User: Which sequence fits this backbone?
């Protein structure tokens, strides 16, 4: 497993979507893996600028869905906790 937190988060999301019956195609995951190193999400930009990120809107559905459907989204939870409490 990659130490890159972007990779871990995508695995949680892919697993969650597949458990809900949404086909997650390899080309989609490959496109995400192929994002340029300089690519930054809106959440990363918010945190870097000292703004409060829209954490619930972005990861809330994954966390709630994981809980509701008994799906392990611990990597997403750990990343969300790091954003709320940096360091």
Assistant:
């Amino acid at each position: 497993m990659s130490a890159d937190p972007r990779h871990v988060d995508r695995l949680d999301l892919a697993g969650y979507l597949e458990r809900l019956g949404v086909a997650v195609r390899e080309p989609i995951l490959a496109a995400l893996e192929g994002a340029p190193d300089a690519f930054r999400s809106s959440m990363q930009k918010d945190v870097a600028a000292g703004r409060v990120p829209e954490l619930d809107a972005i990861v809330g559905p994954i966390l709630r869905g994981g809980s509701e459907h008994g799906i392990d989204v611990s990597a997403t939870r750990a990343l969300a906790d790091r954003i709320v409490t940096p360091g």
